[in-house]
Amino acid sequence: MDEHFGFRAVEREELAAGVTPRPGETKLGEALATDWRDEACRYVLLGICEDIGPRANNGLAGARNGWDAFLPNFLNLQANRFITPGGVHVLGRIDQLDPDAELDTATMRERVAELDGLVLRTVLPILQAGKVPIVIGGGHNNAYPLIQAASQVQGGPVDVINLDPHADCRALEGRHSGNSFSYGIINGLIRKYAVFALHRARNSEAILQFMDDHDVHHTFYAEYLMDPLLFHKELGAYVDAEHTPLCVELDMDVIRHVPSSAFSPSGMVLEEARYYLRRIMGSTRPVLYVHLSEAAPNTPSQGRIVGKALAFLVHDVISVRRQ
């Protein structure tokens, strides 16, 4: 039983309240699928409102606010020729029930392991039904239960691609936002892990050695400073090299000046993050889930930045036509 986290479905009345109607226009929030089990529904949106994972990894608080910043911005996007609103359903949110509790590191890591179970149980039926969960908010700790669910449905280890300044392959020292992928690799859930745009100064020698030892495909953002088109070339070559399904991860820390759990003044621009998603979604590789983590707005102005950025990214996912 979950004592410190809970799932709550988003009702249609709540969605309607988030829409600002305008005569002659249809907003997404007015036209989304009412049941994710409908045959026409392909994407299922889930919010995770917690920041205990980043805090257990010595990161900044605020990731619990990402979903609330995103949702009204998304609901007020236009339902036009570029999108099929009936292909998208807003499922609900997972909440941290005592977000302001003062906890020591060991206790926070125990709580993250508890959260893993709830995320797994929430996402598993969606994947089993052949839908694509789009998971928004919370820390990158939630990648691990998403990978667990995908591996269960696929019947074996899965391929994971990540755009992130940090490899998140820290020691197996108790669950937190910095070790989802090392846990996934060591526990045999990941067949291939690729991470693009790492920051050389933000990954320890132990992490670099772990990636070497476990054949993790990785690139560094510094290389893209010298050749701005290299990211497009390397990403395309990697995505097109195989046809196995992909678990798609994007850590908002990778985007410069976006309020996040590990805010950085240097990094990719939003357009490069959008390209990453559009390139993958437009390929022939099946996508198992999309995870947008670590956005951490703590003020109304930060919320406007994060909300619009996440809305852009989700629109890119759901509007791209598959090859």
What does this structure look like?
With 323 residues, the chain is an alpha/beta fold. 37% of the residues lie in helices and 18% in strands. It contains 11 helices and 9 strands. Strands 1-3-2-4-9-8-5-6-7 form a 9-stranded mixed sheet, with helices on both faces. β6, α7 (205-213) and β7 form a beta-alpha-beta unit. α3 (66-75) crosses α11, α9 packs parallel to α10 (270-281) and α10 runs parallel beside α11. The longest helix is centred in the middle third of the chain and has 24 residues, at 105-128. The protein is globular, with a radius of gyration of 18 Å. The protein starts with a strand and ends with a helix. The model has no long low-confidence stretch (mean pLDDT 96).
- Overall 3D shape: globular
Uncertain residue ranges: none
Assembly type of the chains comes to: single chain
Main sheet strand line-up: 1-3-2-4-9-8-5-6-7
- Got a strand count? 9
The count of helical stretches stands at 11
* Separation, N- and C-terminal Cα atoms: 43 Å
- Over all CA atoms, what is the radius of gyration? 18 Å
Helix content: 25-40%
What is the structural class?
A: alpha/beta
Could you tell me the strand content as a percent range?
15-25%
What does the average pLDDT come to?
A: 96
